[in-house]
Amino acid sequence: MNIILKTENLSKRYGAIQALDGLSLSIPRGSVYGILGPNGSGKTTALGIILGAIRANSGSWSWFGDEPGPEHLRKVGSLLEKPNFLPYLTGERNLKIVADIRGTGYDSIEPALVKTGIYDRRKSNFHTYSLGMKQRLGLAAALLGDPEVLVLDEPTNGLDPQGIYDVRQLIMDEARCGRTVILASHILDEVEKVCTHVAVLSKGKLLAQGTTAELLKSADVIEIAADNLDKLQSVLEKNTLVKKIVRNGNILELTVDPATPMERITEPVARAGLSATHLLRRATKLESRFLDLIKGDN
Fold first, then answer.
1. Other C-beta atoms within 10 Å of 193: how many?
2. pTM for the full model?
């Protein structure tokens, strides 16, 4: 598989705080790669290092299979933390300055404004923009010059539900065009909807990485209830196929391997003289997988 970005043992310390601790990632070309973690997990630090804005204490990284250099970053469009533009210039004029700095020309400004839904306000000064509009202008700046890779740090920050939906569609459209998208976020639902690959960070450490499907296939949850919940739990605790039991009101939530047939759970229950009053199987959501990983790191 063609790896567009590879990091090896990246570490960064700010005084007593270990912001990154040996981060190693492999990001395939054409993927939508989500770097997921709570605030303070090291996501922005990692993106700052690969974009050349922050110096790592140790470790290395490569873009497009080569040592990082200015020629590689010209192929990368980025939105890192909150967008910063000149407040008393228009959105359009600010993008022209960005294009001048990047040497991309002005041809991609109008398409970028249209894609991000801010074309009608292109002549308004930046200081009149709402937080969501500022975020949209930052996204437009990232799209200038038709980059091969987009690096986006919390791209839905400050957006209303319609704006979040629009950004999600934009990311998926860019991916369908063959662009690689590296997305840092703490919003699990958005990552699950758009990302093909996920890395989970906590306290600067990588807890897991892989395709979204791989991370989610580690377990299923079976909801089950019966009139005698205590007896039901006692029976299920003896079933070696049940990895974990959580009591949620009048329902037991069982964590099982995805390959576990349902009858291997229900038959011992029936033999014990119990009848299930509720039975539902559901695949693991990214939220549950994420919380399991984070809990294991504490």
1. 17
2. 0.76
